[in-house]
Amino acid sequence: AVETDSGTIATPLVVNCAGSWSDRIAAMAGVQLPILIQPAPTCLFRRPDSMTTIGPILSDGVNQVYLRAMGDAVYRAAHFGLSAEIVDPDNFDDTVPAGQARMLKEGLGNRYDALQRAPSLGGFTALYDMTPDGHPIVGPIEDVKGFWCDCGWSGNGFAPAPAGGRSLAQMIIGSAPDIDLGHFCWPRSADVSKRVNRDWIHD
Question: Are residues 40 and 101 part of one domain?
Answer without folding.
Answer: yes
